Amino acid sequence: ILNVEQSPQSLHVQEGDSTNFTCSFPSSNFYALHWYRWETAKSPEALFVMTLNGDEKKKGRISATLNTKEGYSYLYIKGSQPEDSATYLCAFSSQGGSQGNLIFGKGTKLSVKP
Amino acid sequence: ETGVTQSPTHLIKTRGQQVTLRCSSQSGHNTVSWYQQALGQGPQFIFQYYREEENGRGNFPPRFSGLQFPNYSSELNVNALELDDSALYLCASSLITLSYNEQFFGPGTRLTVL
Q: For labeling, which of A38, A68, A80, B40 is most exposed (least CB within 10 Å)?
């Protein structure tokens, strides 16, 4: 059974703090790792698709790194703002996996206090 | 927002009933995947439809079935509803040729089974 783990489960930070969370995934048959940002009552929004070991991607104050050999990815938020409050999901897809199958973690819920 | 829409937003049914959920995919996309997110869990893959046929399935019983229409919109049907079917149901659209299984999500339908 393929498992994706995210930590921490939730995080409370002050505005201006930088923060990071972890996604662990199976290191075999890796195809891609996806990060989504999900605000309550909205659609999950795609942040990054990461495919190569050592990949680093950046979008504004948010960046992510990927280590496929050891099976983890970090998401970093620099200078958190209240609008960053959301649940951050990572999802793994494997080579030869069922078509369309993204395997999700349970997410990290971030709350940023003004 | 992604351009993927789902209806209805909320739905209440009783055990044993049948339900149909609907999804309109993003313009230009030809593939729809469905996911179930139970309370406290990450989204779980139900199945994917491409060219009006099932193109991959997760670990869900046959009472979960689907359809895709020529305009690429899709339905998820669940028969003989059980209390454990209470969840948020997400659909995601993609283009089969998009790299690395990138999927774009709708806001979900919240199903409550009493």
A: B40
CA distances to A18, A47, A71, A111, B93 from A40, in Å: 22, 16, 29, 12, 20
What does each C-alpha distance from B101 to A28, A50, A110, B39 come to in angstroms?
17, 11, 26, 25
Q: What is the pLDDT along chain B (114 residues), one digit of tens a residue?
A: 668 999 999 999 999 999 999 999 988 888 999 999 999 999 999 999 988 999 889 999 999 999 999 988 999 999 999 999 999 999 999 887 666 778 999 999 999 999
The verdict on a CB contact (< 8 Å) between A106 and B41 is yes
User: By CA distance, what is A50's nearest residue in B?
Assistant: B100
Task: Please say whether the beta carbons of A105 and A89 come within 8 A.
Answer: yes
Contact present, A26 and A105 (Cβ < 8 Å): no
* Residue B78 DSSP symbol: E
User: Given an 8 Å threshold on Cβ–Cβ distance, is A102 in contact with B101?
Assistant: yes
**DSSP character string of chain A:** ----EEE-SEEEEETT--EEEEEE--STTEEEEEEEEE-TTS--EEEEEE-STT-EEEETTEEEEEETTTTEEEEEESS--GGG-EEEEEEEEETTPPTT--EE---EEEEEE-
Contacts with B104 from chain A: Cβ below 8 Å: 43, 46
| B42/A4 touch (CB, cutoff 8 Å), yes or no | yes
Distance of CA B41 to the CA centre of its chain: 16
